[in-house]
Design goal:
homodimer, alpha+beta, Chloramphenicol Acetyltransferase, 2 domains, six-stranded mixed β-sheet, 35% helix, lipid metabolism (chains A, B), EC 2.3.1.20 (chains A, B), glycerol metabolism (chains A, B), transferase (chains A, B), lipid biosynthesis (chains A, B)
Chain lengths: 457, 457
């Protein structure tokens, strides 16, 4: 038994029925040649036959322990693999619609704290010679980026490799995490709750000079926007049910736009989101007059004296008030440049502090009534996580796509997480089912948005 | 908005991640002649097209409200029918095994308190020209018996009746509840939490004579057993995950045994349970030396001066220490007679009080550590709820079977609820997944147990 670091236990403390604190991933696989009708249930049976489980996937929370109510990690000696590794079916006709419906539902259920907090669901009955898997892990155990890398490291680039082991197998390389798996330098360290917890821990060590610098930088950052994020339909209290939508677009289409406009991959991705959100909110009659503000975590090089990378949170003007797609893209591009410039020359500690400030309302969001009275620092969290470039295989089954599922927060009802995989940009949209109605519509609107950009350049 | 009666809100207060407080039902239907491959998804689509929902199924809890933390019932004006009425698929090969696996999982998830607390899942992909439905309702909204009666009243005895409406339709007769739907006289009023809450409410009105009588009756009731219920594997703290198993046996087989032995339907049902539990625990090496004690809620005629029926809790010696099936049946029969005799001549109030006493540990079971130190008043709760005698149809689809899912409590990891339907005795076993391993084995053992009784008479 080991006392859990505060950065882990925060996710257990912050969790409630309305705010599950787990991340997920949806993976689509092609059935390999010659796969029979029982291929998927056989795949599941094989997973259950591999009874070795690595210590990471055996640990479960215990607590609160001790006089100060800390949580601890403890090992589960009676791991019930059948509980964690599940087989589900889709109802007919087994389209992507039915797949997303089931995935949405699974992502809304709380994980059982009496067991290691992860689940892996194999999904049978998908049309078009495919099957899917949904992975789910509590954020206290594994964050989304680590989960993605772990899956990636378990798969093979070789279609004829039949020795692929599931992510929880002790045979899977875990060096994907680098030397320190939960190190703050790592992309994966970014998360609202974690960022604020880090800040709270480190703020004690701040000298007066640091506090002054962060305060000034915060004013400067706010000044880059020249306006306050408007109140919007996404910045309200949320409920427990989730809706998930996912789709991929060819990277080549996005690259053509960025080359023609001198912008970045991230800019074009944000412009797609901007166009889609604008139309979505226009249709619902909820588009604010002022443009929406997105918060985008980005890996930044820091002052050389500290070394390494740090994650900075950029507040970006999404220009949803502009009707022209290229206007929006240009505004986004400039806003991102200004946002990054604020962090120039800062130490990692300063970056952490500055990034955490706009996230404090999310971290304290579980206090009832808070969200209604505090204006949002931003309207939507959009993350872009680099993924594998080459196609990956699970015992010959080619992974067609991989889509991240994230955590909506009180006051942040929609999360957009994007990753790249084998020539495709994969969008995963996770929303509160009640607050973000007809989330699937955003997929069609993202597509329209990209088409408009293509026509405009 | 109406303040919720304490008998309803108790179920919300007593609920935690580990103790979901909802009841459920699994219904099996035959596909009608000529049903195409999309029959089940079409059935689901039709349900969604009936947008009228009765007030009972629109109300959701609001609270705690007011200074004393009471809950209230409020109406949901934005009922999201697609959220409540779901379509699920079974993985191949779609046997009863896969059906029970999915049902177990669904029964372990908490209901969303932001919405009316019920769900109806249509299940596609079942072998043998069948489909299934799983109904789930929070105990604060509807108890198991009421839910069963409501379903029953929504179905038709006429296979050609194509005007069947789902249980939540305002067109469904609700007179099945009788004049007072949540009246204590009703069978449905029986539940550990409710019984104890009733007791707490009424104890203030007890005169000294009543207290004396109940105390004496409790001593007498305990004396009928001449021993204390042993500690057993079922009387421990539980986890949140559930396992469900269900099967029906022809009533004729059970009637043949009761006629040959001069016992009752209930006695033979209990003897089946006794034989199965004995063998299950012997296999696991956990059979206590002393016999298990079952608690059985029964409808009792009360002292004529009070009128009506009341639910009494009978503590029955299950004779699991005896190897001979007929010995067990005889012991059970005699124990039930003695248990009923205790209640003879009592008023309804006295019956309520006496029945509530052994249930207090369950009602206070959410206090950590309580269960470990308190010896159990009984080992397993077994309920027998009368069901419909004639076959029922949903727009021509014959209901083959209906199986109740109940609530395991802290310290009571296994619940057996039995109902009758169209010539069959339908067993529903709901257990904590961790505490009651391989629950499905009990089905085979129940079958063996009935066969042994048949051979012995």
């Amino acid at each position: 038994m080991a006392i859990m670091p505060v950065t882990d236990s925060m996710f257990l403390l912050a969790e409630s029925r309305e705010h599950p604190m787990h991340v997920g991933g949806l993976q689509l696989f092609e059935l390999p040649d010659g796969a029979g009708p029982d291929y998927v249930s056989e795949f599941h049976r094989q997973l259950l036959s591999l009874v070795d489980v690595s210590p990471l996937f055996r640990r479960r929370p215990r607590g609160p322990v001790g006089s100060v109510g800390q949580f601890a990690w403890t090992g589960d000696d009676h791991l019930d693999l059948e509980y964690h590794v599940r087989l589900s079916g889709l109802p007919r006709p087994g389209r992507v619609r039915e797949l997303l419906e089931l995935t949405s539902r699974l992502h809304g259920y709380l994980l059982d704290r009496h067991r290691p907090m992860w689940e892996f669901t194999v999904m049978d009955g998908l049309q078009g010679n495919r099957f899917a898997t949904y992975t789910k892990a509590h954020h206290a155990l594994l964050d989304g980026v680590s989960a993605l890398r772990l899956l990636q490291s378990s798969l093979s680039e070789d279609p004829s490799d039949m020795a692929v082991r599931p992510p929880w197998s002790p045979r899977v390389r875990t060096d994907v995490f680098g030397s320190a798996p939960r190190d703050r330098d790592h992309d994966s360290a970014f998360d609202p709750v974690r960022a604020v917890t880090e800040l709270a821990k480190e703020v004690r060590g701040f000298g007066a000079a640091t506090v002054k610098l962060v305060n000034e930088a915060f004013r400067e950052q706010s000044a880059t926007l020249s306006f306050q994020a408007p109140r919007s339909m996404f910045n309200v209290p949320i409920t427990g049910a989730r809706r998930f939508a996912a789709q991929g677009w060819p990277l080549d289409r996005i690259k053509a736009v960025l080359k023609a406009t001198g912008t970045t991959m991230n800019d074009v991705m944000l412009a797609m989101c901007s166009g889609a959100l604008r139309k979505y909110m226009l249709d619902l009659g909820t588009l604010p007059e002022k443009p929406l503000v997105a918060a985008i975590p980005m890996s930044l090089r820091t002052d050389r004296s500290v070394g390494g990378n740090a994650i900075g949170l950029i507040l970006c003007d999404l220009a949803t008030d502009r009707a022209e797609p290229l206007d929006r893209l240009t505004t986004i591009h400039e806003s991102m440049l200004r946002g990054k410039a604020v962090y120039h020359g800062m130490s990692r500690l300063q970056i952490t502090a500055l990034s955490a400030l706009p996230l404090i309302p999310l971290a304290v969001g579980t206090i009832p009534g808070m969200i209604r009275i505090t204006p949002p620092a931003f309207n939507v969290l959009i993350s872009n996580v680099p993924g594998p470039r080459k196609p990956l295989y699970w015992n010959g089954a080619r992974m067609q796509g991989v889509y991240p599922l994230s955590i909506p927060y009180e006051g942040q009802a929609l999360n957009i997480t994007v990753t790249s995989y084998a020539g495709s940009l994969e969008f995963g949209l996770t929303g509160c089912r009640r607050t973000v109605p007809h989330l699937q519509r955003l997929l069609g609107l993202l597509d329209e948005s990209l088409e408009e950009l293509e026509k405009a350049v």
